[in-house]
Each structure stands twice: as C-alpha cells, then as structure tokens.
Amino acid sequence: MWDLLLKGATVVDPLNRIEGVRDVAIENGQIAEVGVDLPGGCARVVEDYTGMVLQPGIVDSHVHLGEMWGSPFGFKMLAMAGVTTCLDMAGPLDNVLKNIPTYGAGINCAILQFASPPFTFKTNEPSKAEMDALIDASMKEGALGVKLLGGHYPLKPAVSSLLIKTALEHGAYIAWHAGTSEHGSNIEGMREAVELSQGNFLHLAHINAYCRGAIRPELEETKEAIDLLLANDHIHCESYISPRNGTRLTCFENGKVQSKVTGNCLKRFGFSDDREGIEAAFKANKVWAVYDAGGYSDLVTGEEGLKLWKEHNTDVGGSFNVNPPLPRVWLAEAKRPDGSFVVDGISTDGGCIPRNVILEQGLSLVKLGILTLPEFAAKTSLNPARMLRLDNKGHLSVGADADITIYNYATQKPVATFVKGKTVFKNGHVYGSNGTVICTQYGEKYVKDLGIDTLVVDPGKPVADRFIV
Q1: Could you tell me which of 420, 418, 438 has the C-alpha nearest to residue 430?
Q2: Neighbouring C-alpha atoms within 13 Å toward the C-beta of 263
Q3: 60, β-bridge pairs
Q4: Judging by DSSP bridges, how do beta strands 43-48 and 297-300 pair with one another?
Q5: Strands 2-7, 145-149: parallel, antiparallel or unpaired by DSSP?
C-alpha cells in the first residue's frame, strides 16, 4: 500500500516528458507510480490537488542562510517559497550547521564555505597550504565545497585560479562570485573568471550580476556573457530574476565599506563608497537593510533603516535595486544550438535575504510565453539537481526521491511541498523540521553527530549532460 497519493494535479516532469493531469503515488520516501486515475484505496493517505501544478521539488542553486546575511530564518523562508533543496553560497559553515536543528524547516541544503579575506583567509594572497587546510577542514565538517566571494572580498587573479584547481584536487564543489583584485563583479570579472578556470568545472554564480551596464550597455554585456558560456561548456551557472541584489553594509574603522559590491552599488547611484555614502543612500531610499522581523527577514530603508544600520555598528546585510529587467529575461531564456539552456538554472540569491521569488516571478516568464512549464521545471529543478550531482532528484521517475513542489499557477504561490514524501509546507504553514545536509563522504560523520541527516554526493564526478527540453 502506498503511503501517500497526490491526485488531480497537472504534473510537469521534463525528464519523463510528462505534462498533463496525473496522480503521483509515494512509498518509503520515493516515487512509486505516476499515472492516470490511480486508485485511492491503494494509499493510506489521499490528497486532492485538482487545478494545481505539481513538479519535481524546486532546487534553488544560490541562497544565503548564514546569519551574517540577515537572520537564521532562511530555511523557513525558502520552505514557504516552495523550495525543497538549496545550495548555500557562503555559510559561514559552522553558523548554518548550528541553525539547522532549530530552524531547518525540513529542506535539503548543501553548504559552500566562503574562501575570502578577511574571514577564512588572512590576506588576498593565501598560500596553497592555506587553501588545502581550509578546503580539507571545511569538507570534514560537512561542506560540499568552497566559494570565492570575489565580487565582495577579492583574491588576486593567479590565486583565484589556483584555488579552483586546489578545490577540484580535493573533490570539492567550487563556485565563484566573479571578481579579483584586478577586475570587479562585472562583465570584465566574468571574462576573467572564465579564463582563469582553465577548462575546469566551475559554478559561476548569478550571471545577471555581471550584466548591469557597469562597463558597456547592459544588453551588450548580456550578449558577451551568453557567448562566453556558449564557448565554455565547463562553466555551469544560474541567474536570478529579482531586481534586488544582496550584500553587506559593513564598514571598516576608517569608514570605507568592506564589500566591493556595496561600493560599486553606492557609486552607481552617485554616492561615495564609505560610511557617509551609505548614510546618504538610506536617506534617499536607495539602500535597504535586512533585519529580523520576528520569524522571517524583511527589508527597511529611509530613516528607520539608517537607525538600524547604526545600532548594529554598520554590520548588517543590505540590498540595492540594481538588476535591470532585460538581461534577467534574456539570460533566463537563452538556449544553445542543441536546445539546452545556456544558463542552467533560475536561482534567487535569497534564503534569509527576502527575495525568494522563483515561483512569484519565475512563473511570470511562463505567462509571458518566454518559458514553457516544462522549461520552467527544468531550470528550477532538473538542471540544478544535476549541477549538484543529485541523481535521484529533479524528476519523478519511479524510485526517485519524492521531493515535490505543488503550486497555484494563477496566484504563482506554493500550495504544498514534500521532501522524501514528508510534508514540509502546506497551505501557508511550515511543518518540516531539522533538515538534510548534502555533503561528501568526508563530512558525513561530523554532520550526523550534530543530529542532522545527510545525503552523500560526489562533486568530483562529471555533471550529467545538459537536458534538452
């Protein structure tokens, strides 16, 4: 007898070429059967989702869950947005792990430790031995790999290239927010990152961030970004569709902002890249501070935001409206000659930063005819699952993990989510708790000793071929 039968939804499963009304049966946390009018008497529990859309669980391949970015509520915020699996892009590792038993909300999470000065490296030119030590320690403590926060806290170019090679030597997942001491978080930085990767696997974060018109007109930058990805298929990536970015508003004692991204955003709006510039940006309602609103994160600007920023001695997460619309759309729809997507996934760069809008804004691309529903499901589930080497997620094949997102297409809001057949979210309430950490074999014991379930993957194995919708 099946544990759960989900009836009546329009099922969208690009891998198995399903788009139509089907029932989905779940047993022992896995997909048992997908078919038309499956018998309710064969299931212990039957739930009717007539009129809704059901797809493999949403995988957000770029989020932030560490409290340094806003609050510990990112897990809950993701669950309420329909996400079942995510990739945390910077940790801090110990902080994210510490919060999962209390705030985990039942979702799956892979974590990349940030490899950046002045935090995990003392300078922007760490030695090979320092890299080895950081990567080894991080993976033994549950990280899937590491991320260069080059746009915020850059390393020197040659060091950045060496770090990619070193991570891959360790069998680690490696991601990069493009930028070095020579080039910033822009199209020049992206071009440099592609070159410095030297043909090795690299997850190049949020491609839209390099197409904001900082160097040339934004559509020229977008075309170059697409051409770079077409010519370098070892680069895997995602882009997000929110107008907002995420950054830190922290200042050094001398008043200068720590993050290069924050500095560039301030200059974009005509402010100085220091304490005075941030203060002026708050007063002009051009920057928002992330704050704990009581169980979730929210944004505040103006005098209220300025007061919060000062009360925290500048050390808060922040956000600017800097992402132009046309590059976001173009990057979402661009395809290779074989029909696969140039940019593998749609992400949010959200989590505890309040912009978890894969359904809220992503489905607008479907309604505008830019993506089909199967294409949307491929970019929000199947492709990012493949990037993370999650062979048993991203599709509804018999025996696959029963990770499922059900949503109301009309309202573009999630109705229910399941992780391995367990209810995580339903009708506005989060029922999931704790979570599962996606890690390598080296961190499995450490994570389990923390009382957290694990899913072991091998980031060193080749990524599955890009899916052709």
Answers
A1: 418
A2: 16
A3: 86
A4: unpaired
A5: unpaired
- Report the pLDDT value the prediction gives residue 118, as an integer from 0 to 100: 87
Q: What is the C-alpha separation between 252 and 44, in angstroms, rounded?
A: 59
Question: Of 4, 39, 49, which Cα lies nearest the Cα of 420?
Answer: 4
In 14-82, which ranges are E strands? 18-21, 23-27, 30-35, 43-48, 53-56, 58-64
Spatial distance between the Cα atoms of 328 and 262, rounded to a whole number of angstroms = 20
SS3 percent helix, strand, coil of the chain, rounded to 5, is 30, 30, 40
83-93: burial string, b at 16+ Cβ within 10 Å, e else: bbbbbbbbbbb
Grade residue 67 by pLDDT with cuts at 50, 70 and 90: confident
Give the model's pLDDT for residue 469: 86
pLDDT at 68: 77
Model confidence at 164, pLDDT cuts 50, 70, 90, reads very high
Q: Which residues pair with 439 in a beta bridge?
A: 456
pTM of the full structure: 0.95
